Amino acid sequence: MIGAVSSDCCYGHRMDTRFEIHQSLRALEFSSGRAVLKFLGCLLAAWAAAFWPEHAGLADAGRWSLAIVVLGAGLWITEAIPAFAVALLIIGLQILILGRPGGVLLGADDLQGWEMFVKPWASPPMWLFFGGLVLARAAERTGMDRHLAQRVMRWSGGRAQVLLPALMGLAFVLSMFMSNTATTALMLVMLRPALASLPLDSPVPRSMLLGLAVAANLGGMSTLIGSPPNAIAAGLLERDTPVDFLRWSLLALPPALLLFGIAWLLLMRPVRRSPATLPMEMPVAMAQGVPVRRWQRLATLAILVLTVVLWISGSWHGIPTAVVSFVPIVALSMTGVIGRDEIKSIEWDVLILLAGGLSLGVGIEASGLAEWLARSVHSTAMPPWLAALVLAWLAALVSNLMSNTAAANILLPVTLIIAHAMQQGAAAFVIPVALACSAAMALPISTPPNALIYASGRIRGVDYLPVGLTMFLLGPPLAVAWVWLMR
Question: What is the DSSP letter of 98?
């Protein structure tokens, strides 16, 4: 009798498992089917944009380049395939369609062959950003970031009115030199136990979480290694008006700090109306794996300080910013602070996205599409400053709806073309647009920090709008005004 019951139970369990597997497969088929439809729709849109209108004066190579641009933009927006896969597809299509050893498939003989589309992999912006990622991994590996966060939280004494600006300031500074996603994740670990002690209807958790995300996003604007759009912009400006580490910070840090102050004032109002004290017994999760020695932590701090000093003083010693990036890459590897596991855990998909965007810019220029777009834009009577502002707002709008890295990949090459067409300095257009990409934070999907705090369960979609729309409306004009004032 017992055996029969057990058999029935096992049979029922097998039936449940088969049903769950069947349901999962059906969901997978539905998801795959939607992805295929999105992909086909993007292909159709790319063909229509490139070959349906007349496009007088645009050669075949330019038409194919336009098709690749539209296809990439569509796939990034619809997320039919992963973002890094879109970047690889763009590089592959440019090699297949536009270039081959000894010539070009479509008759644009001024192209240099397929190698030009893979050269961005070894370009200075790639090494610069890779150096920043290595530094970030070293800080995480040695626990420097965790100890700094713990000190700030203890210093605040648990007072919400003190903790909010301290938390935002720390997130801002950390995001200048490491991934804003990693910064947000770290601070969430610190905050979660304290916020859990507050009532669900308290405005303090909302202000803390929103302040964390906003500060992390704005901190990424401030340095060349802070955010992928910055590195993409630096790569595009390399041949035109190169921007070193210090110059970028002088142009980006003031508008970022002003936006930081505005966000703090907005988020502090509900905290003042509802004073609260948070418990300060915060867990400090230690790094996993091989124990970190004290001398390794000190070595990491020394290498970090040396690298930042060399980056900032580039105009005096003359060493290129990308070359300085080899200091942490080599030194941290030789000292054993960075090992195989840390190298494997670096955000390689972000580096692939950067390479895809830089390669797309090469294709747009080499195929003649850039020149054709420049001629088209040159006929408009819009003042240059207004064109820069419109492009910056467009970048912020698009970045609210998709990855800001993907948005920068699409918009920054076009921005460079428009700057040349209007006979203006390229940096006056490209840098504000890159900064505007990081000022987009009005939706949960706008940035990884926004998504992380949304996953905490203490934030609703509507909570992003007051501060997010303020950043969207004020970020682009502040960036344009400051960059144009300093040029």
Answer: I
* Helical spans, DSSP H, in 197-244: 203-221, 228-237
Residues 6+ apart with CB under 8 A from 411: 391, 394, 395, 398, 433, 437
Determine the residue type at 347.
E
Which three-class secondary structure state does DSSP give residue 111? coil
- The answer to whether residues 67 and 81 belong to one domain is yes
Asked if 104 and 122 touch (Cβ cutoff 8 Å), the reply is: no
d(CA 84, CA 175): 22
In the three-class reduction of DSSP (H, G, I as helix; E, B as strand; rest coil), residue 364 is classed as: helix
Residue 43: the pLDDT is 92
**Co-location of 133 and 111 in the same domain:** no
Beta strands, E only, 302-355:
none
Q: Are residues 224 and 366 in the same domain?
A: yes
User: pLDDT tens for residues 389-427?
Assistant: 999 998 898 888 677 887 888 889 889 988 888 888 899
Please check whether residues 158 and 69 belong to one and the same domain. Answer: no
Amino acid in position 129: F
Residue type at 30 in one-letter notation: F
Give the whole-angstrom CA distance, residue 357 versus residue 203.
40
* Neighbour-count burial for 4-28, b at 16+ CB within 10 Å, e otherwise: eeeeeeeeeeeeeeeeeeeeeeeee
Residue at token pair 């950067």: 354
Identify the domain boundary among 64, 99, 117.
Answer: 117
Q: How would residue 29 be classed by pLDDT, with cut points 50, 70 and 90?
A: low
Handedness of CA 258, 263, 264, 269 (dihedral sign): positive
Exposure string (b/e) for 246-275, b if CB count within 10 Å is 16 or more?
bbbbebbbbbbebbbebbbebbbeebeeee
- The reply to whether 374 and 460 lie within a common domain is yes
- pLDDT category, 207, cuts 50, 70, 90? confident
Task: State how far Cα 460 lies from the chain centre.
Answer: 23
**What angle do helix axes 124-142 and 228-237 make, rounded to 10 degrees?**
150
- For 142, 171, 329, the CA distances from 297, given in Å and listed in that order, are 6, 21, 16
**71 and 133, same domain (yes or no):** no
What's the alpha-carbon Rg for the chain, to the nearest Å?
25
Q: Which domain holds residue 470?
A: 121-486
Residue 466 lies in a domain: yes
Same domain, 94 and 159: no
Same domain, 326 and 473: yes
Give the single-character DSSP code of 292.
Answer: P
Among 353, 347, 308, 410, which Cα is nearest to 181's? 347
